[in-house]
Amino acid sequence: MKKIQMVDLQGQYQQIKETVNTSIQEVLNSSSYINGPLVHEFQADLEKYLDVKHVIPCANGTDALQIAMMGLGLEQGDEVITADFTFAATVEVIGLLKLTPVLVDVEPDTFNIDINALKKAITPKTKAIVPVHLFGQCANLEAVLEIAKEHNLFVIEDNAQAIGADYTFKDGTKKKAGTIGNVGTTSFFPSKNLGCYGDGGAIFTNDDELAHILRGIVNHGMYTRYYHDVVGVNSRLDSIQAGVLKAKLPFLDTYCDARRTAAKYYSNAFAENTNIITPKISDFSTHVFHQYTLQITNGKRDELHKHLLEKGIPNAIYYPVALHAQKAYKDIRYKESDFPVTNELIKTVISLPMHTELDTEQLEFITKTILNFVN
Ligand SMILES: *Cc1c(COP(=O)(O)O)cnc(C)c1O
């Protein structure tokens, strides 16, 4: 059996080596390392794939979130609501910009922002909601949009984990994750579903005016060369990374399918076990399984984590600490009783190896090892 890895970037690279190498060589031949033609080509390809008017490439997914919030004109003291159960980047940029993060609980079965908790958290100072499409499926966007409309709030989709997922509205309309709110952001970190070979990120919007503002912000606030109209940042996707991404984008749907196939194998294997809850797939979103995350309900999650490592099966706890409990993001207004679901999830979740190169032999070994231990 091939060695099991949490993410098999080398295995995936070997499958597409020639295409990627050609793309990188093209950049080396041109010496156009920053803002080269491949950056623009990838941007156009991604706009087409997502069916969105504007993709603004930037340096990473954290910058993408920060720049989106700057572009929307959010100001000190504005409250931004997001999920308590997510990667810290989401809340970090809110804090950095001196906005006020307001963390709310998530749903027990999808791990995405809880709509009732969201409603309760709205105050006259609320300016934006950041639904995170955690682990690869969309939050309940139609409900989020409704609340946003009612209270005149911006919606910023943190789509770092769900690129390629499809959201279906009640009327049957389908849109790509990240293109539905006022603005969407993503990360091309190597282990993300569309990963480059370094850092990268992008912002998506259908709003022409916002796109113009964002393009200036990523480039030192310049709209005319050497005229700085606003305080901006320096955040670029470099040409080599764009080359890698342009080469990989045509495979994204195949990669999503490969992840779904592995997820299906896992979920079928665990279906009958009463100590394991498998991930729920919402009616309104496809799941692209950035992570495949189980809940272990018999109190043995930590033991399972260790046992699997001993058996050569990598696994991870995403996330072991709720954001509201992190030193950096504590707020006297939070009560533990505000976060019953997150507080439970941090004790029960475990993410299994998930990538495009898992084979049946590996999946069989992983599932059998888990079932033998948990039963
Ligand atoms: C990875 C990730 C980010 C940050 O992306 P970077 O490119 O690492 O800055 C933001 N939000 C979520 C939900 C992520 O998973």
Automatic annotation (TrEMBL):
Highest rank taxon of the organism: Bacteria
Modified positions (N6-(pyridoxal phosphate)lysine) in chain numbering: K192
Active site: K192 (proton acceptor)
UniProt GO molecular function: pyridoxal phosphate binding; transaminase activity
Gene3D superfamilies the record matches: Aspartate Aminotransferase, domain 1, Type I PLP-dependent aspartate aminotransferase-like (Major domain)
Keyword hit for Manganese: no
Pfam families according to UniProt: DegT_DnrJ_EryC1 (PF01041)
GO BP, sorted A to Z: polysaccharide biosynthetic process
Protein keywords: Aminotransferase, Pyridoxal phosphate, Transferase
Entry similarity comment: Belongs to the DegT/DnrJ/EryC1 family.
Protein's name in the database: DegT/DnrJ/EryC1/StrS family aminotransferase
Lineage of the organism: Bacteria, Pseudomonadati, Bacteroidota, Flavobacteriia, Flavobacteriales
